[in-house]
What we know:
The chain is α/β, with parallel strands linked by helices. 31% of the residues lie in helices and 9% in strands. The chain is built from 10 helices and 7 strands. The chain has helices spanning 53-63, 97-108, 117-120, 149-156, 174-186, 211-217, 230-239, 253-268, 272-275, 282-287; strands at residues 13-18, 31-36, 43-44, 68-73, 130-131, 135-136, 205-208.
Amino acid sequence: MSASAMRPGRFRHLAAIDWSGAAGERHAGIAVALCRAGDAAPELVRPAHRWSRAEVRDWLAHDLPDATLVGMDLGISLPFADEGAFFPGWGDSPTDAPALWALIEQICQHEPHFGVSAFVDHDQLSTYFRRHGGREGAAFGGGRGRMRVAELAQQRMGCQPTSNFNLVGAAQVGKSSLSGMRVLHELRGHLPVWPVDPLPAHGSVACEIYTTIAAMAGGRSAGRSKIRQGAELDAALAALGSGPARHEGPIDDHRTDAILTAAWLRTVAHDPALWEPDGLTPDIARTEGWTFGAR
């Protein structure tokens, strides 16, 4: 990372995307929030709109404001460091994150809406996943499943991450992460993804976020990270030095996750320590990636 990459004002806009891996085209679980430097509360992008994943891809490719740090609430890769491979024992296992994204796209290219069922049901690859119906592959590893180095860092912070190889349960993020990797593959060459790509000195960049980290910075506990009332959102925003969003009454946690995390990114985006966390080696960067804010 160059010193110029973290100069004051490097990012003029901050965005956060709450993602979804649910089946179908449009999803209530996708929310996009955006803010500028200053202290005004982040605003929802197309607040009355039900986003599709393809529309988010198009927004990132064509409508992202200049010099935006955009956090995406999904895992940008799979565990690698623990076994020296994404899929140990499989001769075609990719060697880095972009190759993994390309493999997912190759297998799922005919599946609409960035679906990934063909990948997780693949004859060879399904053995690495825990799927619905009690179908746990022999290579899943048991327990909570394999974790990335960044997820172990999240755990030390008090978060409760789940393995991206786990596709079962309310807390699972496997399918949303895999669908997001298809989107990242399509954005290759349009939007750098830190730390798989080096942090550029200029322009926009995407990173992985975990909204619980932002909520904890806003005064919430990991177990109470979800906010569903406008007054609670404003209290958390105030803890981050942000003005109020002024949403009255109930509000879904997908929107609050996006709004609060965009405000958090604004407070921490220029902290060099978060771009050079302990545990982030060049090999981890190119294979597993990292969660911004984990340390």
